[in-house]
Amino acid sequence: MILILLGPPGAGKGTQARRLQEEFHLKQIATGDLVREEIASGSDLGKRIKAIIDRGEYPDDQIFIDMFRREMSKPAKGFICDGFPRTINQAQVLDDFLTEIKKPLTAVIEMDVDQELLIKRLSGRFNCKECKASYNDYFSPTLKEGVCDICGSTEFFRRSDDNPEAVKRRFEVYREQTSQLVDFYQAKGLLYRVNGNNAPDEVHAEIVRLIHKLTSSEVSIKLSSS
Q1: Which residues are catalytically annotated?
Q2: Where does the pLDDT of residue 70 fall: very low under 50, low under 70, confident under 90, or very high at 90 and above?
Q3: Do residues 219 and 213 lie in contact, with contact meaning Cβ atoms separated by under 8 Å?
Q4: Is 159 among the annotated ligand-binding positions?
């Protein structure tokens, strides 16, 4: 099984991918994780990627293509692609690669989320500097202001690209880049949509129902734009 999760930053792709990975024993390949690992390495490429992301932009196609080909060449029961492909060029390269390794794409699942909700999810999130516990100003603040619920630390940090203006720009770039991508997969009959505005458990249940229907061949559902 090979799944692609689409959705703007903050849609919850990573959360859903991790749960699907455990439930269906698939290997998660996340653009965000690969990029963060590269940045953390302190390499020249990592520094270049960080500068691009801090501007609210995305690295060029070839960087992602090379990383994903490397990961998908490793043995696994199946894959969940989180954040890739993002452009038509990436999608076509992925198609060619899957044909080469004789592994067909099962489904492309797009998580639809309202822009204002995304801004709150991203601009409001912060982490404890000591234990890395995650919080959000709007949805899950610390029980005691300025104190981590887990370890009691009073030091926190936010990602540099989570300011509201950068978040808006990332959303706009996502829409610009993926509008054709959505049409591309819809034309192939592979595109399915779920409501990413819902709570994570509800989104997960909707995706699992869809996967069971697809893999059991009991029902063929093709969701199109409303």
Answers
A1: 13, 86, 125, 159, 170
A2: confident
A3: yes
A4: yes
Token pair 């996340």 in the structure block, residue: 30
Mean pLDDT of the chain: 87
Q: How far apart are CA 92 and CA 88, in angstroms?
A: 6
Cα gap 124→136, rounded to integer Å: 5
CA-based angle 9:173:185, to the nearest 5? 80
108: amino acid identity, one letter: V
Which has the closest alpha carbon to 210: 134, 109, 77? 109
- Is 178 labeled as ligand-binding? no
In the chain the domains, ranked by start, together with CATH numbers, are 2-122+163-216 (3.40.50.300), 125-161 (no CATH)
> Which is it for strands 2-6 and 79-82: parallel, antiparallel or unpaired?
parallel
CA distance 8 to 96: 25
134 known ligand binder: yes
Of 211 and 70, the structure prediction assigns the larger pLDDT to 211
Strands 134-136, 125-128: parallel, antiparallel or unpaired by DSSP? antiparallel
